[in-house]
Amino acid sequence: MRKILISFIILLVLGFSSCTDTWLDVNKNVDAPDWVNPVLRLGPVLASYEGLQYDLRAVAPLSQYFSGTSTYVSNFGVSHSYIAGSDAAGECWRMSYWLQGMNLENIINDSRELEQYRLAGIGLTVKAYSWHTLASLHGDLPVKDAYVPGLLSHNYDSQEYAFSMVRKWAKQAIAEFEKTDATIYPSTLTTSDLIYKGDAAKWKKFAYAVLARNYIAMSKKNVAYLDSAIICADKSFASAADDASLTFQATGVSTTSNFFGVLRGNLTNVFGQSDYIVQVLTGNIPNYNASGAIEGLSPYQMVTDTATLDPRAILLLGTLDTMQVDQTKIKKGTYKFVGTRLTNAVACTFWGSTSAPTIANSGTGRWLYRDDAPWPLSSYAEIQLIKAEALFQKGQKAEAYAAFKNGVSGHMDFVKRLIVPGTIVKDSKNKQTSVIGDKITSARFSALATEYMNSKFVNGMPLADFTLSHIMMQKYVALFPWSLDTWNDLRRYHYDLVLGTGGIPATGTSWTSDVVYHKLDSDPNRVYKGLYLPAANVVNRRTKFATANLGSPAYRLRPRYNSEYMWNLPSLQKLTPIPGDKENYVTSMVWFTTPGN
Amino acid sequence: MKAILLMCLIGLGFMLTQTASAQTLTVKGQVVDAKSNEAIIGATVSIKGTTKASIADASGEYAIQANIGQVLVFTSIGYYLQEVTVGTSTVINVRLEPSDVMLESTVIVGEFGIKRPARAVGAATQTVKGSDIAESGRENFVNALQGRVSGLQISNSGGTPGSSSSIIIRGATSISGNNQPLFVIDGIPVSNSSFNPIGGLASKQGSDPVVGTRELDFTNRGSDINPEDIESMTVLKGAAAAALYGSDASNGAIIITTKKGKVGKGIVKYSNSFSFDQAYRYPEIQTKYDNGMYGNTNYYTSRHWGAEYAPGTVFYDNVKNLFQVGVGQKHNVSFEAGTEAMTFRASASTLKQTGIVATSDYTRDNITIAGTAKLSKWMNIEASLNYANATNTKVSRGTNGVLYRAMNWPVTDDMRVYLNPAGNIRYPNRYVDVDILNPYFDLYKNRNYDETQRFISNMVVNITPIKDMLIRAQVGYDIIATTMTIVRHPQWSSTATGTGSYDQSKMNDSNPTINIISTYKKEFGKFNASAQVGYHQTEQASKTLSVHGEKFMVADFQSINNCDIATLVNTTRTSTRRLQGVSGSFEFSYDNFAFLTLRGRNDWSSTLPANNNSYFYPAADLSVIVTDLPFLKTKLGPISYLKLRGSVTQVGKDAPPLSIYPALEAAPTSYGGYRYGFTGPNPNLRPEMNTAWEAGIEARLFNNRMNVDMTYYNTFSEDQIITGFRMSYATGFVLNNMNVGSFKTNGVEFRVDGDIVKNRNWTVNAGLNLFKNGSNVISLPKNVSEYYNAYTWVSGNIRNGVMVGYPITSLTGLDYQKNAKGQVLIDPSSGLPLAAGTWSYLGDRESKLFVGFNASIRYKGLLLSALLDGRIGATVVNGTKRYMQQYGYSIESVTQREAGPVVFDGVLKDTYENTETPTPNTTGVRLGDLQYGYAGLDPNWIETDINYLRLQELRLSYSLSKKLLETGTKKLISAATIFVSGSDLVVLTNYSGIDVVGNSNSSALGGTGGAGFDMMSIAAPRRISFGLSVTF
What is the DSSP letter of B943? Predict the structure, then answer.
């Protein structure tokens, strides 16, 4: 009996601790929540839009906004290729699928459940914007298979399908904004919403802006999209005050600062303004003769000329000149701008020197290249110029001209809002060494802007002279350097190459393995006057694309290497007409650039 | 002093003494070694068919109550069994024949301490004597197993004190998870984990921790165990161990039995050893060409592609100067006493080791008490308590390590002067960029230190409530508290304007275990049956509190309190894994020569989703002693014992903790917030399954003088839970935890040993073990070309990639670009071979054959023994040499630049490469004319067909004769031994790098690890040690 009793006691003591149902329930992470109110996810989701800036390093050379010695410039801007085995130009991919990805799904789904419709609408707008950008850059991409649990391979959907989803999400967003929130938001909404501080009315306009962008991108596919673009543009931003920009807390650490500011050192002196943007903004587009040599200036100066000062140049571009202390003396020629040819050493950084900026000589930076400068996602100017283009394409020239004027003036407001008047840095001998901030004050800018607006390039232009080129080149300027959609525009117009039959580029006509053939500047159908691809047979270019391109310029970016090329290759190989694993996949024309449905 | 010690013992002896109950006959006698005539201390005398046993004392004398006609069984590890039937005589003296192999009589410690005769076991096991481990002189006992146990691979991450060692038995069974065996001490699982700084250290949001698994090595905690406390160690190989110890033992188990004290008169034993370590195998730096490029000297680059040094330049051998002689000493004292009712042992040990690199050291103090007590005829208890206190000052390793920095330091400058006259960090003379940092500054001004306190406690109650039934209940607790401190001096920066950083992590691990086992045995004529049921419960809980701070207010003061409060980052990390299991087994035997064991176990794990957390796994093993078959008994000639064995096992495995639910991370972006981390949750994980079978033969030949053991094994692992698995970002995550992939492993183990000479004065024996393991990946998801661990990516683009159709121990990298015919493509403009853009298989890190050889020669009291460890057909990534080539440090780089033009074999990539007539390359390239020479491509740095033989141990000992001691010390000293030994004295290899067996990562990495990557390793030093052992 004693034995049994002792045995029993031992079993009882040992078994006591374990015989509870919850004993195994210890697998929750006690150091991190597995659910948070969706508003707490919003800040990081929006902050991930710095991914647009990451990839701008590849796309801005393709759009001929940026030049320099960076490998991005040589691989994307010159070779129209990619960097082998690298995730370069794959950050929007990472941003859309992962950093926003499931977080955004949770924002949308959880806030709908909580009847926080405004937040759901914000989530859907963000999703629509991101996927418009992503599908624009890469063309085909997994949409239906994205986020489906348990899948081991992810098939690609067409850009057409992705774009249809973009519009669906944007429209869903608009529907959410129509609803009344049932719950009160945590006060963190105003800080977490790094774009509009929770202002649903502005978000709704942004959702329409995404639609307008998307419709204009597809406008070659169906003229009805021009009408849709115009309608959405009208419901979108009403003035530059509505511009969508990502703000930064700028606490002195990289994660809260503008990617293109001084602190993060991402542009330094390996990226600089291209010679082309300088030519456009100063009215110095050269005239290339039949053999490609420069013979004076082109008669087709669409934004400004050598006599007219476009004051935006003083902000958009860096200049080595010291700041004009007497601001009233700023006139055409006060500041001289030098651009950099692709792959040449940067002649002038955005901060106005040849060397990389430091806190000592550039402070936190200037204009859009400042640690705390809000980064634009879309603007009133952009939308008005989209509207102008759509109207122009429809033949409504007068209405287009009105929208054009709104667009340019909206861009003046956009540019001016970012001004931080400069202070002069002097050395121990009281000699001016650099300028921290912008070299023009808001007041002087306004005065010069008015002069410019009244010039023959905007308000003073006879309607008869008004062309599509005016719209698109002002848009090219208005989206400098921030918009990835400029590349959409360039691709829609096929880089102004001579086109083959059917209105699309053709080997032999548009290019050979060594040379691309541009329309003449005098060609009324040439949109971007003076823009030449690196393979064009004009002086200062005459480099070739990557051999694998077989003469064709790039029409898409490769998907992210360490996502798709490493871990989803069979899906990529299924793509047509050029399989995704081929070296010339980048030349595969994306859906929106091809005519017809 | 001795008197005091003995008084303590006497006191203990009093307490332990109990009156034994009277029986019919008390048999007494002495057990001696048949060859040496020396007493066999601790020999077991048991009565056949009962659980009754006694143990021989320090004089080999025993006493046991028995009935006439009962059979006494005399056993001791290392001797053949002997059986004697009790007659009328009360004195039975026994001479046991020694053998170095594990014999049929040897019991292996089976299910949680319950003993099982080895002859009944159907799976391969191998036992190592505790004395062999202690005598190896290794601080980390894990290293003593290399070469001793067939099928076992140790990879050592470095030659400085406290380096971690990882063990893999029979190859890896998990692509990403833990592949190390389970360590069991006296029936309770104990931790052999290594601290992983990734996740274990705090870091600023968006930043990596100050060190990773490649930069700093945190020792495997198995090193806390004092080898002197180990009685014996049994290695259970392969998945069969899981049937005994649950799925944690699916990679095998190392079963350690500690000393518990022996019956007999009290013994006090003292031993010591003193050791001297010398660095061995380190690279030589060329002294012909100066810093620079294109053959022109300049001091902006740390690469040595400049002009020749001016005549008369004074050179310093900085690499050699990095090393010093390491000195160590160790002292052990133990006290043992016991009666038949109680045994007791207490021991204390202290060890201090300084390394071959300045400041590095390792200390460990152990106190152990253990004992057994028989409370009544039907109840006894065992208990033990081990305390360890270890400290370790470590050395930075790899491409941020001291060896790397010593190579980097210009040979024209004396690296040993690490401070300038003002007392600040000194940069090398002439060198213009300030990115070369002095390793001595790292050693003396930075800090990489940890200290550990550990308790392993264990209590067992054995009850026999009714005849033939045993209930064994056990509670164990393994507790580890470690504090890691990593300090970077503010001047430790390329511009001397750093801010300093202070990192401290306090990790508390607790691993409680409960096992309750009940067995019942029954005999039916020649049949024997036993059944066993068990309940098992384990928990592995870990809590880490880490803090990180920067911006020291006082540069030379090291404390978190000295950091700018605005820079402080605190992190906690908690993980708990709990497992419950129920096991059952049935064993049938016939006439003690055929054994069949069937087992089943069901586990419930906390780490799997509730609906998938239960998994059952069965096992069966069979053993037949062929030589005992009646019709074969006399027909097998020289074969005196032949056993055929086989087992089939299935093992389920759970996931690592925190793999199924999402965990949000605080984001460092503007105004904060939360977002998902890299790894996606997976609420659908299910247990992975390994199915293994093995078959083997054990034989003894020539009158038991030769032993042969051979095993073939085969494992199929499917539904692998792979963590950190990469797929398309369309999953929504960068990394995923999924049940994907399957692979096969198989191999052969062979062991032979025997006594070559055996007579009264001489014994010469030798043993050889061979081992071969291979694996093949059967499936991965079709879109996944490769699985790899990015931390193994230390040299070029070579990494531990796992690809379908190749071994799981593969190396992948960027091969040459080749045309369809397989010809290498050459860049027409440079004349250099082109690298492919995608990863492909480049080699298998698994050696073709592992070899262990041991031999000993005994002449009277003199014993000379040697152990050699070798590998044949190994493949090693020589990252060190590649780096030295890239930087122009190696002698080979001089040869290359001085050589004439090289025409690389291949065809030009000129668009004709895939035609019938590709253009052969004829361009000669003078490699010395390139900016920084030519460092080749990944395949150039993978050395294959490496053979390697290391004299792991060489030991000479002399035991003073008993007579001499008796007369010379008036019986004060009963035994004394002196020894001198060497470790790792010689390495013979065709490998041109530093360390064939090096590991670029610590054992914390998991998966197939970083073994086979030699990147600035510091190889194991040569060691000479001597010492003595005295028994009072």
Answer: E
Please give the average per-residue pLDDT across A95-100, as a whole number.
Answer: 97
Is A565–B784 a contact, with Cβ atoms under 8 angstroms apart? Answer: no
> pLDDT at residue A376 above 50?
yes
**The Cα angle at residue B690 between residues B686 and B691, in degrees rounded to 5:** 135
Identify whether the C-beta of residue A379 lies closer than 8 Å to the C-beta of residue A414. yes
The three state secondary structure string of B172-207 is: CCCCCCCCCCEEEECCEEECCCECCHHHHCCCCCCC
Residue with the larger pLDDT of the pair A404 and B802: A404
Share the mean pLDDT of chain B.
86
Alpha carbons A267 and A264: distance in angstroms, whole number: 8
Three-state SS across B770-799? Answer: EEEEEEEEEECCCCCCCECCHHHCCECCEE
Closest CA in chain A for residue B911: A547
Mind listing the pLDDT tens digit for each residue in B293-310? Answer: 888 998 888 899 999 999
Is the pLDDT at B425 greater than 80? The verdict is yes
Among A381-395, B291-305, B932-946, which range has the highest average pLDDT?
A381-395
Average pLDDT value for residue range B500-529: 89
User: Phi and psi dihedrals of A128, rounded to 5?
Assistant: -60, -45
Instruction: Write phi, then psi, for A538 (nearest 5 degrees).
Output: -125, 160
Residue B1021 DSSP symbol? P
Is the bond preceding B609 in cis, omega lying within 30 degrees of 0? no
In chain B, residues with a C-beta closer than 8 Å to the C-beta of A6 are: 379, 463
What's this model's pTM, rounded to 2 decimal places?
0.82
Q: Tell me, what amino acid is at A488? A: N
Interatomic CA distance for residues A425 and A433, integer angstroms? 6
Q: Does residue B726 come out as left (phi exceeding 0), alpha (psi in the -120 to 50 range) or beta?
A: beta
- Is it the case that residue B12 has pLDDT exceeding 60? no
Check: CB of residue B1028 under 8 Å from CB of residue B269: no
Q: Does A247 touch chain B (CB under 8 A)?
A: yes
How many angstroms separate the CA atoms of B225 and B332, rounded? 13
User: Contacts from A406-409 at CB under 8 Å and sequence distance 24+?
Assistant: A406/A380, A406/A381, A407/A380, A407/A381, A407/A382, A407/A383, A407/A471, A407/A474, A407/A475, A407/A478, A408/A381, A408/A453, A408/A458, A408/A474, A408/A478, A409/A453, A409/A458
Of B573, B580, B681, the CB nearest to A18: B580
More confident call, B767 vs A185: B767
pLDDT value for A426? 87
Tell me the one-letter amino acid at A293: A
Q: Which residues pair with B665 in a beta bridge?
A: B675
Give me Rg for the CA atoms of chain B. 31
| DSSP run (H or E) holding A385 | helix A380-393
Pick the residue of B670, B737, B798, B839 with the most A CBs within 10 A to test the interface with A by mutation: B670
- Residue B14, pLDDT score: 36
A444-488 per-position pLDDT tens digit: 999 999 999 999 999 999 999 999 999 999 999 999 999 999 999
Per DSSP, the three-state class of B766 is strand
What domains appear along chain A, each with residue ranges and CATH number? 39-236 (1.25.40.390), 252-377+419-493 (no CATH)
Distance (Å) from the alpha carbon of A551 to chain B's nearest alpha carbon? 15
CB distance A567–B463 less than 8 Å? no
* Contact assessment for residue A449 and residue A412, using Cβ atoms and an 8 Å cutoff: yes
- In sequence order, what E strands does B904-995 have? 907-908, 924-925, 942-959, 975-983, 987-989
B22 pLDDT band, cuts 50/70/90, is very low
What secondary structure, in 3-state letters, does B622-671 show?
EEEEHHHCCCCCCCCCCEEEEEEEEEEEEEEECCCCCCCCCCEEECCCCC
